[in-house]
Design a protein that fits this description.
There is one protein chain. The protein is α/β, with parallel strands linked by helices. It has 35 helices and 13 strands. The radius of gyration is 33 Å and the shape is elongated. The N and C termini lie far apart (about 100 Å).
Length: about 775
């Protein structure tokens, strides 16, 4: 048999499209010469053409092994591996092809594509650049290079290449879409909208155009328009999981949580292993209080992708809510191992430590690590508005928060903002609230200037604050959810102060002061914090319940014949030390019951098991779920007196209890968050309910529980007592805050004057020299 002639005949049949005859011919050649590399190569290409991928790989591997220096064989092997989505192996085959034929544009281009799909953007960009060195005006290589640069964060470089690709190939929808995505990354949403509207005009059925137009419109703050485009994308491409997922995100922003969940479920029906939708669904389930389902959903995601940092972070949040602090902390640490560049996750870790740690040092150290990693690299005193350094002038004070809304923070911001002296301070509010409500509108009425800054990134917000000429900027969130600490890291105001979120430390060099009071922070506590402490003379808190209903009821024990102790704090505060204290108190009051707040399901059962280990039988314990504020306050009608948590006391919850006529016995700790009960009860002259030791806590609880006449008196009198105290004197509190602000401002003016004097003296010496 003439092998060469038979191979030529089979090749001619292949080129003519007679694949059956070509297959027969190649088979005959390989029967006569089983290792013939060219016959294996061409039969491999035929198999690839007919999508017989395993057979193609076998043939092309044989050809490449027989003649490893042949770049065509290596290229064909790369094509087979690429078809099987074995991207790393495909890239290695293309590399061998490039070595064999360095001037091959196709080999460099294919190498770039394989590396791009393998998640190696820097190497992919290098391969595309090599391809463009051989064919500078190839639109596909320009477009792919642009996409890779965009994915790797070089947005300016991406836009330059994508614009060039679009000029060469103006009809390409892919170039338009990628360019629009890059403009969105650069937050030039209007540019992206313009491009995508033009693409829709010429290609109305293009699903990706609709999807990315939705993203641009969302960036422009037009959620309803974005929702319409996501719907259009999902109609054009049924099962478009990304569009369905983003529909869910917009529904959530708009407050339609049932529609959001339906959209996430639809995305997961279309793509069950879509971890982005799994993560979003898990977070929404947490918001809905469906803790077990949230945990299950997030663990489902981790089964798909164990290295998904956001899943670990959000699972940590669910476990923290449930009081599983050690597991939560482990989740945050695992998330940071995977993605060490996430400031929110590290902030979650730092904040969660305050629930566990009875000492200040570990919290400060973790916050300082956060500062070193994220804030310190941004620290600079860029020039903003020229500040008048007159010490007595009216000050521009800015408050930054995501919680200017129906949120417990409003119980404290409203009484302050409503009583600020407009002659002393001009109030600016920078709100990142997801959606406005009636409380938002009430807070906005207290501000001279209201800014909705949710669409702004940190750099843009920093620029706005500087442009407003803010003198004192107040962080109301710190390391809690939704905060903007990296705005403060950029020093947009000459004086920056932390207050309200919790009386701890941010760990940030950029925060000059923190507000506190002498009970939270007695003498000797200043080294707990990186900030200087400004002690308000009365209280860290000024409270307004924002409602007179429900009223205070009669003491439940008088009717029932037994005591009900209670704690409606988040379960994240229910440490083993707390449960041990409660167990001892419940043994001392053997007929008492205990009422707690916890979501139904596994976590509630675990809490019952933990309580049982401390001697509190399940039949003595009842629960309420998380409820709207009015229903939550009514829960205190069932409680005779409260038991506080340790080492993180109740803060807002204890004030709510006092408002409802329910006194709380508190264990005083060594950190500021563990001294909240002391701070609040001091204002009511109820220091006998504060305990400096575990034994004293149990004794105080037993004494109060055995004194029903006193409990009845407190029930009747506490609301008025709280209302008449500094805890609810908004005018007095605002004056104290303003004095603290003035002290900080005068110190800044003095420091600036000294700095100018030193600069002038230095300049004078230089001139003499």
């Amino acid at each position: 048999m003439d092998v060469d002639r038979a191979l030529e005949t089979a090749t001619e049949a292949h080129r003519a499209g007679d694949l059956a005859e070509a297959r027969r011919g190649y088979g005959e050649v390989l029967a006569a010469a089983p290792a013939h590399p060219l016959a294996q190569f061409r039969l491999g290409l035929l198999e690839l053409q007919e999508q017989r991928l395993d057979s193609a790989l076998e043939r092309l591997s044989g050809a490449a092994a027989a003649d490893p220096g042949n770049s065509r064989y290596q290229f064909g092997l790369g094509q087979a591996l690429q078809s099987l989505e074995r991207w790393d192996e495909a890239a290695e085959a293309y590399r061998r092809a490039v070595r064999g034929e360095p001037a091959s544009f196709d080999a460099h281009f294919a190498l770039g594509a394989a590396l791009q799909r393998a998640g190696r953007p820097a190497q992919a960009a290098a391969a595309y650049r090599e391809a463009l060195a051989l064919k500078a005006d190839d639109p596909a290589a320009l477009g792919n290079l642009g996409a890779v640069l965009r994915e790797s964060g070089d947005v300016d470089g991406a836009i330059e290449r994508l614009k060039a690709a679009a000029l060469i190939e103006p009809g390409s929808a892919a170039h338009t879409v990628n360019l629009a995505i890059a403009f969105c990354q650069r937050r030039e949403f209007a540019q992206a909208e313009s491009l995508l509207r033009a693409l829709q005009a010429r290609a109305p059925a293009h699903a990706e155009a609709a999807f990315n137009l939705g993203n641009a419109l969302r960036g422009l703050g037009r959620p309803q328009d974005a929702l319409a485009q996501y719907r259009r994308a999902a109609e054009l491409r049924p099962g478009y999981a990304e569009a369905l997922n983003n529909m869910g995100n917009v529904h959530k922003e708009l407050g339609d949580l049932s529609a959001a969940m339906a959209a996430f479920e639809a995305a997961l029906l279309a793509r069950p292993d879509y971890v982005v939708a799994i993560n979003n669904a898990g977070c929404l389930l947490r918001t809905l209080g469906r803790s077990d389902e949230a945990e299950d959903m997030l663990r489902r995601g981790l089964a798909v992708d164990p290295r998904h940092a956001a899943l670990h972070d959000n699972l940590g949040n669910v476990l923290k809510d449930a009081g599983a602090l050690e597991e939560a902390i482990a989740c945050y640490r695992r998330s940071l191992e995977i993605d060490p560049n996430n400031p929110a996750t590290h902030g979650n870790l730092a904040y969660t430590l305050s629930f566990r740690s009875s000492e200040a040092r570990p919290i400060r150290e973790e916050c300082a690590r956060w500062n070193t990693r994220f804030a310190a690299p941004l620290a600079r005193r860029e020039p903003g508005a020229a500040h008048d350094l007159s010490p007595d002038r009216r000050l521009k004070v800015g408050y930054v928060s995501p919680d200017f809304r129906d949120h417990c923070q409003a119980l404290f911001t409203l009484p302050l903002l409503a009583h600020h002296d407009p002659a002393a301070v001009e109030v600016y509010c920078y709100s990142s609230a997801e959606r406005a409500d009636e409380i938002t509108r009430r807070i906005a009425q207290c501000a001279q200037v209201w800014r909705d800054v949710r669409p702004l990134d940190d750099t843009e917000l920093c620029r706005l604050i500087r442009g407003d000429g803010i003198d004192i900027l107040v962080d109301l969130t710190m390391h809690m959810a939704g905060g903007r600490p990296l705005v403060f890291a950029r020093n947009p105001a000459p004086v920056q102060i932390a207050w309200l979120a919790y009386p701890g430390t941010t760990g940030m060099d950029a925060i000059d002061y923190r507000l506190s009071d002498p009970r939270l922070d007695p003498v000797g506590y200043d080294d707990h914090y990186t900030e200087k402490t400004l002690r308000l003379p009365d209280s860290f808190w000024c409270y307004d319940p924002l409602t007179d209903v429900p009223g205070v009821n009669a003491l439940p024990a008088a009717k029932r014949g037994y005591l009900t102790l209670g704690c409606l704090n988040n379960p994240c505060k229910l440490t083993e030390h707390t449960l041990d204290l409660w167990g001892r108190a419940m043994r001392a009051l053997a007929d008492a019951r205990l009422k707690l707040m916890a979501p139904p399901g596994r976590h509630r059962q675990r809490l019952l098991a933990r309580l049982a280990a401390h001697g509190v039988a399940a039949e003595r314990v009842s629960f309420v779920e998380f409820r709207p504020r009015g229903e939550y306050l009514r829960s205190y009608h069932d409680i005779d007196f409260g038991l506080d948590t340790f080492p993180y006391n109740g803060h807002t919850t204890s004030l709510d209890a006092l408002w409802m006529g329910v006194p709380t016995v508190t264990r005083v700790g060594a950190t500021s968050v563990g001294r909240a009960g002391l701070s609040q009860l001091y204002q009511l002259d109820l220091l006998d309910l504060t305990a400096e030791s575990d034994d004293a806590f149990v004794a105080a609880a037993e004494a109060l529980g055995r004194d029903l006449p006193r409990l009845e008196t407190l029930r009747r009198s506490l609301r008025e007592r709280v209302a008449r105290s500094p805890l609810m004197d908004g005018a007095r509190f605002a004056k104290n805050i303003e004095r603290a602000f003035r002290h900080a401002w005068v110190a800044h003016c003095d420091s600036a004057a000294r700095a100018r004097a030193i600069t002038s003296a230095t300049a004078a010496v230089s001139r003499l020299a």
